[in-house]
TrEMBL record, chain B:
Disordered, as annotated region: 1-65
Signal peptide range: none
Protein name: DNA polymerase delta subunit 4
Organism placement in taxonomy: Eukaryota, Viridiplantae, Streptophyta, Embryophyta, Tracheophyta
Organism: Carya illinoinensis (Pecan)
GO term, biological process aspect, one: DNA-templated DNA replication
GO molecular function: DNA-directed DNA polymerase activity
Bias kind Low complexity: ranges: 22-39
Cellular compartments per GO CC: delta DNA polymerase complex
Membrane-spanning parts: none
């Protein structure tokens, strides 16, 4: 049951008149039906039996190959499909496999042991691309080097499953003539357009406890969405907010304290201060509207994807409310039958290290067209070694796809070949930008809420 | 001790009739196998006489036809990698992914008495 918030009519007289809540004028908060679809990302039922990552790659290849085999006859009906070992020189055909990108600059654990130590540092922080990068296609029968200018290594990464149309050259490479990606997955049609505005607020990178975060900004945001700020018109808008999503990196633990020595009790309380501060703020939100919190790369959750929900004991105040939900990363849910899918940014940030695109929105679009949330997992992105499934495979196209902890706010609406449409949202880091993103469920349009505390001197 | 075989074949390594070559490593996980299974190259002087059945050393260890069938299942690439999973789990995964693994495999696994882990288990 969502709690109702009644907004009082404020008195304009300077005298201390008690505030009366006029039941006729009280604003009710709008509600939306919520269902969580995070079962795929839970790993409590998994047991580790010493398996290696080859199992998840097999599951991914099999899933996507079955899918691509069903799509190929529609797109290239006259070409034979064969495995890599069945390739014959000069014969035009279609092969399906997992891409592997040889990257010269990708840090390798063996570099530590190399005899020649140059002056350049072993690891470059940003992007590991090089003009000499080349792609290889691999399936369970063999692998073949890819040639040609159709498939640009700069746009692809290891771990994507694609179908390639081409032929084997006399050099033993596979000359690619065309690429067949899976494309956007099928989408459940949106329900009839409702006439009322309902808003969902996204925020990410709160970094409570860090030196860059300003607690006043977050408090302003909380006050605004709970209706404690502004006049009736403002409160009316705030009453239409039905859901609040925190997309990762909510706290910053003072890691300097963790140096291997026993913690003094003074340091122990310092360590838990950020999470206590966050809990106080989240309690204010949870008392007012439903809230989802996802773990991020710097939060106290497990490192590898899918990250498991932050434990309830970290939030003694807010977890008392049934409006408080601790969720996995990636997170998938439905609000009023509109499907949301999002991450705290690790999938797209990792793609940025190993490939290039115009902007983060383009990376997001690529993951949807490849039908895989995190293709670089487990190669360069930590991942649980699943044996029989790949939970990052996107089966059903979301209506809203969001990614947290980005440098700037960006949004776009993309369309698929079968009438799918997706609202893509890059949620900026709140601690540096002070921006939260608001989505209108009626028309899937986005705008921002910006909070600042600078005094403008006249 | 002199070899019991009367012909020169006893001095040379012989090919097994079934065509499967002997494994160079001693399986460390099996503790109940007696030393008579240790392979040698060339001379079979150390072989106990009972091993030399039909004039050729029986180097097949102690696995029978059902284990042979299961090993072929392990090595079949269509069902994915076998390491790190029990055979039963791998069979179920294959069935769930629609690969139609033969029911005979499951019957053998359910019957008991066979190795639940794949052939590489404990060796790599």
């Amino acid at each position: 049951m969502n709690s109702l918030v009644k907004f009082g009519r404020t008195s304009h007289l300077p005298a201390m008149e008690p505030m009366e809540i006029d039941p006729e004028k009280a604003l009710q908060r709008k509600q939306a039906t919520y269902s969580s679809l995070d079962d795929n990302f839970e790993i409590q039922k998994e047991t580790y039996r010493g398996q290696q990552y080859s199992q998840i790659y097999f599951a991914r290849l099999h899933l996507m190959r079955t899918l691509l085999y069903s799509l190929v006859p529609n797109r290239k009906p006259h070409l034979p499909v064969c495995t890599i070992l069945q390739l014959e020189e000069g014969k035009e055909c279609i092969i399906v496999g997992t891409l592997f990108k040889h990257m010269k600059l990708k840090p390798c654990v063996l570099d530590e042991y190399s005899k020649e130590r140059s002056a350049t540092p072993l690891v470059r922080p940003h992007n590991f691309m090089h003009t000499d990068d080349n792609l290889v296609l691999e399936d369970d029968s063999g692998r073949v080097k890819l040639a040609g200018s159709v498939l640009l290594p700069s746009a692809y990464v290891t771990g994507i499953v694609v179908a390639l149309h081409g032929k084997e050259t006399d050099a033993g490479d596979f000359l690619v003539q065309d690429v067949l990606e899976a494309g956007l997955p099928p989408q459940i049609e949106l329900p009839l357009k409702s006439s009322e505005d309902k808003y969902v607020v996204f925020v990410s990178g709160l970094s409570v406890g860090s030196s860059t975060s300003n607690p006043l900004h977050f408090q302003l945001l909380v006050d605004h969405i709970t209706g404690h700020l502004g006049d009736e018109k403002e409160q009316g808008i705030a009453a239409k907010i039905v859901h609040f999503v925190v997309a990762g990196d909510s706290i910053e633990i003072p890691r300097g304290l963790l140096n291997g020595q026993n913690l003094a009790s003074k340091d122990q309380s310092r360590l838990s201060e950020p999470i206590k501060e966050l809990d106080i703020l989240l309690t204010q939100i949870a008392a007012s509207l439903p809230l989802d919190i996802m773990p991020g790369p710097n939060d106290p959750a497990n490192f590898s994807l899918p990250q498991q929900p932050l434990h309830r004991c970290l939030f003694p105040g807010s977890s008392a409310y049934n409006t408080f939900r601790s969720c996995t990363n990636p997170h998938c849910f439905e609000l009023d039958n509109i499907r949301f899918l999002g991450t705290s940014g690790q999938n797209v940030n990792d793609l940025e290290k190993y490939s290039e695109a115009k902007d983060k929105i383009e990376f997001m679009e690529r993951t949807l067209r490849w039908r895989h949330l995190a293709p670089t997992a487990p190669n360069t992105l930590g991942c649980y070694p699943f044996t029989d499934r790949d939970p990052f495979f996107i089966e059903s196209c979301p209506h809203v796809y969001f990614v947290g902890n980005q440098n700037e706010y960006k949004t776009d609406l993309i369309k698929g070949s079968e009438g799918q449409f997706v609202r893509l949202i890059c949620i900026p880091q709140f601690c540096t930008t002070g921006i939260a993103v608001v989505l209108n469920l009626r028309n899937l349009e986005c705008h921002t809420l910006s909070f600042g505390t600078e005094f403008i001197s006249s | 001790m002199a070899a019991r075989s009367e012909n020169m074949k006893g001095f040379y390594r012989q090919r097994k009739k079934s065509g499967v070559t002997k494994k160079p490593l001693q399986p460390s996980s099996s503790s109940n196998k007696s030393p008579k299974h240790s392979p040698t190259f060339g001379s079979d002087v150390t072989h106990a006489p009972a091993l030399l059945s039909h004039g050729s050393p029986d180097l097949k260890d102690e696995y029978d036809e059902s284990e042979e069938v299961l090993r072929q299942f392990d090595l079949n690439m269509a069902y994915g990698p076998c390491l790190g999973m029990t055979r039963q789990a791998r069979w179920e995964r294959a069935r769930r992914l629609g690969l139609n693994p033969p029911y005979e495999i499951e019957r053998l696994l359910k019957a008991g008495k066979v190795e639940p882990q794949c052939l590489w288990d404990g060796r790599v």
